[in-house]
Amino acid sequence: MVLQELGSKINGALSKLNTASVVDEAAVDSVLKEIAGALLMSDVNVRTVAEMRTNIKREVMQDSIRAGSTSKAKQIRNAVFNELVRLLSPDVDAYRPVKGKANVFMFVGLQGSGKTTSIAKFANYWARKGWKTAMVCCDTFRAGALDQMKQNAIKLRIPYFGNPLEADPVKLAEEGTKHFRDEGYEIILVDTSGRHQQEAELFEEMEQVMDVVEPDEVIFVMDSTIGQAVADQASAFKKSVPVGSVIITKLDGHAKGGGALSAVAATNAPITFIGTGEHFDEMERFDARSFVSRLMGLGDMRGFMEKLADSKALEKSPEMMERLQKGQFTLRDLRDQFKTILNMGSLGQLVSMIPGLSQMMQGQDPTAAQKNIEGFMNCFDSMTEDELDGIYRTRIPDPKLPGKYTYVYEKQISESRLRRIAKGAGVPLQRLYLLIQQHKQFEGMVGKLGKKGLMNDQRMQQQ
Ligand code: GDP
């Protein structure tokens, strides 16, 4: 998972408070020092860390140390959570495209930052949602840029504009956007040239391109692997063009993503997507609360539900849709969703979205994580059809009719059945408890969302 090490270090520091007999100011200081160290190791900017540390301390020390150590740890955890979310949430919103009109996005960033790849992912994202999408290549600097876009365009079946004989990026930008505006395209993505370094020439060219394409949003693409340097880079771009939002690339499995995250503060522009791999579908919508939640091993049910909506599994299963609309979510539904997400090839994503699971799997290699998920699947297999459908009953001799049987209905699977299921699945009982607990949480959430929240959520449909 993204920045997993940071999450486990923060949790490690906090868990020390749980075992401390007295939580005084010195104990709080020592935990905060450890957390600050972890943030710095992940390349979060020194000033940002100092600021966060002061804020957390202020928030935590407002209450006297009266509270027990467990609740103090919880308080600090909450304060850390809030500070990380604040760090990642500037006050401004990203541009929201408007249906039925041309929405032009201009992508800027250094060469190799992942612009062309991100454009293809971004195009794929909108096209899949039914928006008429096209790409324009005016990167005349990098040999092969047009070819790369062309290959992506063919794979995605999305039109593109470029001309290998034209050397003037401004001309290409103007012609390309005009062409697609005239054709009624709704999402027009403009790829600009990058350079190896920030050079006056690059910025000048960017400004000229901007003048002719009149973008609705300038998206700054930054490579998370370059660490701290990204903050300076972000500020330089921001000075030259009005960066409206940020896409952070290559966050897959990289521990030093903190620099990129704190660079958001430098641009004061929201992160909209993060790149988590080279494939077109390896880009996730960024939500600060979900991200920090996952980072701290608290799970991300919203992300899970979004994945579910995105997988189109619901459209294929009208019965499930009907149940969800009534606020029902059975163990069978949970099993099917696990399967869907696994089929999409995102084991890491699935793990990070489930509260408790990521902590349990920290430090494990992916094969062990895979085994744990398989253990869950075996648990589902050991359940009866009734249990999967939420009918929990035990067969007992009928007291009124000797020799016959009757059923006792229960609200949850009985302890003896749980033991049987765990044994049948070959997993420790604790693991099955975790699965049942997860199911309860999802059930509770679906119950709350019902049809209105889940299916009619405008944000989910449009974003
Ligand atoms: P550009 O010069 O800014 O257009 O960069 P490219 O889009 O050509 O990307 C540079 C390299 O980074 C390519 O090899 C991409 O496959 C790779 N890349 C881009 N985004 C990601 C990402 O999110 N994760 C990983 N692992 N690689 C990425």
Automatic annotation (TrEMBL):
Keyword Nucleotide-binding: yes
Stored InterPro entries: AAA+_ATPase, P-loop_NTPase, Signal_recog_part_SRP54_M_sf, Signal_recog_particl_SRP54_hlx, Signal_recog_particle_SRP54_M, SRP/SRP_N, SRP54, SRP54_GTPase_dom
Protein family per UniProt: Belongs to the GTP-binding SRP family. SRP54 subfamily.
Swiss-Prot/TrEMBL catalytic activity: GTP + H2O = GDP + phosphate + H(+)
EC class of the enzyme, as a word: hydrolase
Protein location: Cytoplasm
UniProt keyword terms in alphabetical order: Cytoplasm, GTP-binding, Hydrolase, Nucleotide-binding, Ribonucleoprotein, RNA-binding, Signal recognition particle
Cited PROSITE patterns: SRP54 (PS00300)
PANTHER family given in the database record: SIGNAL RECOGNITION PARTICLE 54K PROTEIN SRP54 (PTHR11564), SIGNAL RECOGNITION PARTICLE SUBUNIT SRP54 (PTHR11564:SF5)
The protein's Enzyme Commission number: 3.6.5.4
Designated name of the protein: signal-recognition-particle GTPase
GO cellular component: cytosol; signal recognition particle, endoplasmic reticulum targeting
Annotated GO MF terms: 7S RNA binding; endoplasmic reticulum signal peptide binding; GTP binding; GTPase activity
Gene3D superfamilies: P-loop containing nucleotide triphosphate hydrolases, Signal recognition particle SRP54, nucleotide-binding domain, Signal recognition particle, SRP54 subunit, M-domain
BP terms from Gene Ontology: SRP-dependent cotranslational protein targeting to membrane, translocation
Pfam families in the record: SRP54, SRP54_N, SRP_SPB
Entry-linked HAMAP family: SRP54 (MF_00306)
Domain SRP54-type proteins GTP-binding as annotated: residue spans: 270-283
Cytoplasm keyword on record: yes
